[in-house]
Specification:
This protein is an alpha/beta fold and 202 residues long. The protein has a single domain (36-198), classed as Vaccinia Virus protein VP39 (Rossmann fold, 3-Layer(aba) Sandwich). 29% of the residues lie in helices and 23% in strands. Strands 3-2-1-4-5-7-6 form a seven-stranded mixed beta sheet, with helices on both faces. Strand 1, helix 3 (46-53) and strand 2 form a beta-alpha-beta unit. The termini are far apart. The structure holds S-adenosylmethionine (SAM). The site of S-adenosylmethionine has 21 residues, from strand 2.
């Protein structure tokens, strides 16, 4: 079933209904002033809303037009006028060139949702979208196989900190932080690491 069909059928079991605790912790801790942030594969938008509430200029995107419609309707209810959202395929080079560049990019349950063969394209597009002094924030999940799946079965496809490092290091990224998270939702405990990456020295 493709993503749009899942959204239309309301089959969105990944949607926790709240922002990721690790994102809330980063928002508390960061010294970065809020600038432009991209949230690819934004889904229901809970993380995008948390970023917008913290003052970031949010661009959310999702391949599912239905997800984007719902996200925008919710953003309007919340009166978040510093959030825009677009329907499009992050893996489409033509689409991502329309987006501009961002001082931060937040990836949670997006890279793990992509087919394994698409991971190098994800990394290449991150490089294009991130401003020179920007930070790519990856909440890496699930670091162990879930539901008895093989590594090549998904989504979600198992995603380890080493996988992300192997994608980003050849493109000049270094990890300023790469560690288990302090807080997760109970259903995801022990399955999440936080990575903060930049192309400058950490
Ligand atoms: C597992 S869901 C996670 C949603 C959200 N990040 C969350 O934490 O709830 C993955 C999302 O990525 C979207 N998606 C999948 N492939 C995509 C692509 N190539 N480009 C943009 N969005 C995509 C899906 O429609 C879905 O909403």
């Amino acid at each position: 079933m493709d993503w749009e069909t899942k959204w239309l059928a309301e089959q969105t079991p990944w949607d926790t209904g709240v922002p990721a605790p690790a994102l809330c912790d980063w928002l508390q801790a960061t010294r970065r002033k809020p600038q432009r942030v991209l949230v690819p594969g934004a889904g229901g938008g809970h993380d995008a809303f948390a970023l917008a509430k913290a003052g970031w200029q949010v661009t959310a995107l999702d391949i599912s037009p239905t997800a984007v419609e719902q996200l925008l309707a919710q953003a309007r209810k919340m009166e978040l006028d510093n959030l825009q959202a677009h329907a499009g395929d992050f893996l489409d080079p033509g689409f991502i060139t329309t987006l501009g560049e961002f001082e931060a990019i937040w990836d949670y349950t997006f890279l793990c949702a992509l087919p394994l063969a698409s991971r190098p394209v994800w990394a290449e597009h991150m490089t294009q979208l991130l401003a020179a002094d920007g930070e790519l924030l990856t909440l890496i999940f699930p670091i162990k196989a879930v539901g008895g799946r093989r590594d090549d079965e998904g989504p979600p496809y198992r995603l380890t900190p080493q996988d992300v490092q192997a994608l980003l290091a050849p493109l000049g990224f270094a990890a300023a932080e790469l560690r288990p998270v302090a807080r997760s939702l109970p259903s995801r405990a022990g399955l999440e690491w936080f990575g903060r990456w930049s192309r400058n020295s950490p």
